[in-house]
Amino acid sequence: MIILSIPAETEGVAKHYNELDEFYREVWGEHVHHGFWHTGRETPKEAVEQLVHTVAQRAGIVACAQVCDVGCGYGGTSRLLASEYQAKITGLTVSEAQFEFACKQTAGKDNPQFLLCPWEQNEFDPESFDTIVSIECISHIPDKPEFFRQIHRVLRLGGKAVVIAWLANPSAGKFSTRHLLQPICLEGRLPGMATADEYHAMIFKAGLALDGYEEISRQVRKTWWICARRLTWKLMTQLKYIKALFDRDRSNRVFALTLFRILIAYHTGAMQYGVFNISKPLNASPVNGYNPSDTI
Questions:
Q1: CA distance 98 to 101
Q2: I need a surface site. Which of 11, 26, 112, 180 has the fewest CB within 10 A?
Q3: Is 285 in contact with 218 (CB distance < 8 Å)?
Q4: CATH number at residue 37
């Protein structure tokens, strides 16, 4: 696992998304996650929604299911799951800007509901949810084993979770690690980047079952070509983007460079994108039957 010497904290993650709020929504939209291209001809909107549908289908989400969207961002995934699958959604984010935006989109409605809360510090009752979905959130979590322990705690027996993660290729060389993966973690407020096998071990250690895993980097990497083109165009045509890029008070302005690092990391294979299908076995031990101090 790639671990930063100066790990990112929850406050730093929140600041990253708060500071770049306007730019994220303008460059990519309300779904702050990759698109999934089956044919390569999908529009960006179709691709990002296709990823959500893929998650919903793998998780087996049905009407009235209690679903937690961990790292819900602007609430795009939560709203889609509520409207198209009639599930009862609770979304969590640590970004005040994302939380306020998400709440405004569903003002006057009781589904989905949004909470401003770190996943590791949630106060949900044990076995509160039928399903948990988390798209690209775990990369921001400092204590990754605790991420899965919380899934075990709040997921009902037989419940399913689908977790999508940014991954380090275990075969990445020293150059790629030093000049791509480590800077991506630092600039993107990621405390570390694990490999697929390391996540497999954490899942089992938490008392969960890994029902399936798929690496889909080739189907999602087009996201960054599109973002790169859009950002380049905005830098050429909108003064506020130039000002933001050279504003020293914006500590997260370096993410404009990170975007291109990610693009290169995908195309060199140094970085991967994986989907984990997880379940809580019917014979799982009681929710408090593990030692929270255990480490991987």
A1: 5
A2: 11
A3: no
A4: 3.40.50.150
* pLDDT single digits (tens) 129-147: 999 999 999 999 999 999 9
- Residues contacting 171, CB < 8 A, separation 6+: 269
Query: Rounded to the nearest 5°, which phi and psi values hold at 196?
Result: -60, -45
Packing angle of the helix pair 144-154, 196-205 (nearest 10 deg): 40
Domain count, the chain: 1
| Ordered DSSP codes for 23-63 | HHHHHT-S--S----SSS---HHHHHHHHHHHHHHHHT--T
Residue the block writes with tokens 């959604």:
89
Q: Report the C-alpha gap between 257 and 86 in whole angstroms.
A: 39
**Distance between the two ends of the chain, CA-based, in angstroms?**
11
Confidence band (pLDDT; 50, 70, 90) for 1? confident
Total-model pTM: 0.89
Strand partners for 163? 134, 276
Using CA atoms, how far apart are residues 180 and 216, in angstroms rounded to an integer? 19
pLDDT tens-place string over residues 248-258: 666 655 667 78
